[in-house]
Design brief:
Layout: E1 3-9, E2 13-18, E3 23-28, E4 31-34, E5 39-42, H1 46-63, E6 70-73, E7 78-82, E8 85-86, E9 89-96, H2 99-105, E10 112-122, E11 131-132, H3 134-140, H4 145-167, E12 171-183, E13 186-190, E14 198-202, H5 212-215, H6 221-231
Antiparallel strand pairs: 1-2, 2-3, 3-7, 4-5, 6-7, 8-12, 9-10, 9-12, 10-11, 12-13, 12-14
The structure holds adenosine-5'-triphosphate and thymidine-5'-diphosphate.
The site of thymidine-5'-diphosphate has 13 residues, from β9, α2, β12 and β14.
């Protein structure tokens, strides 16, 4: 597949067209941002680590029957994906209280959430990714109701698969964000799943092993991502065919 012009450079990834109108290339960069792009740094190896991490999770989800955009790794920092018409909404699931939920509702960090919660946020950095709901999304045309119903159903299926996968590595999947889009009318998981967009705690010590290390200036960010990857069976040195 031939790489063509850059379509979009986001905060962490760049998106390229290809000679196939139905396929894109995602390039994972070392840029790391938090607080809607207000804190930005380069973290060595992050692009490579997140590309591998995402490929591993997407393949696990695909094997479990989830429709995903991921097709194959292309290089250490690139992968080939189906070109989706993205819905500009972020689907957030929480299994344990942390982050925004604690700030917003005054809930104590670390309490188990039963059943897990599901929230929608509008992807809009200038507005600070405000929380929305299905009614607002439908009225303002951000997403169709039936597509959000399907995204929510897939998100909970993904939760079951990933909670087990991480627990096998003695890790708690605290919360995470997913983005969906449409591929020839089918709601399909897009974007990435990596420690940049989720919270993962050591199940024994509750040590934070995700982007909160960057948000809170704890250091050892990429080392923690690599440790999480090793625990769930990722070989970061594997060659790409
Ligand atoms: P944020 O960090 O808030 O998610 P961003 O736009 O800065 O926003 P990046 O990850 O840097 O995020 O950029 C990748 C962009 O590519 C995102 O806008 C994402 O929605 C989009 N994208 C991801 N997968 C696909 C796909 N399969 N087809 C089309 N667009 C995609
Ligand atoms: P949340 O606690 O709402 O936000 P914050 O990161 O400000 O504490 O986020 C819940 C989870 O979803 C967390 O793992 C980060 C992820 N997330 C993103 O990666 N990007 C986003 O735009 C949002 C809203 C959440």
């Amino acid at each position: 597949m031939e790489k063509r012009q850059e379509l979009y450079a986001g905060k962490a990834k760049s998106v390229f067209e290809t000679d196939d109108p139905d396929r894109l290339i995602l390039e994972f960069r070392d840029d790391t941002s938090a607080f809607d792009g207000k804190k930005v740094e380069q973290l060595e190896r992050k692009g490579r680590v997140n590309n591998r991490f995402n490929a591993f999770i997407m393949n696990a989800l695909k094997e479990a029957g989830i429709p995903v955009h991921f097709e194959r790794l292309r290089s250490n920092t690139e992968c080939e994906v189906k070109r989706l018409t993205m819905m500009p909404v972020e689907c957030v699931v929480r299994n344990i209280a942390a982050g925004g939920l604690c700030r917003r509702l005054g809930v104590e960090e670390g309490i188990a959430l039963t059943p897990p919660t599901f929230e929608l946020f509008l992807k809009n950095d200038e507005k600070g990714d405000p929380m929305i709901n299905e009614s607002l999304a439908e009225t303002f045309g951000w997403a169709r109701r039936e597509h959000l119903v399907r995204a929510r159903e897939l998100t909970f299926q993904i939760n079951d698969i990933l909670q087990k996968l991480f627990l096998d590595g003695n890790l708690l999947l605290v919360d995470y964000k997913l983005e969906f889009g449409l591929f020839h009318g089918e709601v399909t998981l897009g974007d990435e799943f990596s420690p940049d967009g989720c919270r993962l705690w050591d199940a024994t010590t509750r040590e934070k092993m995700d982007k909160d290390r960057f948000r809170q200036g704890l250091g050892g960010v990429i080392e923690a991502y690599e440790e999480v990857g090793r625990r769930i069976g990722i070989d970061f040195d594997q060659t790409i065919d």
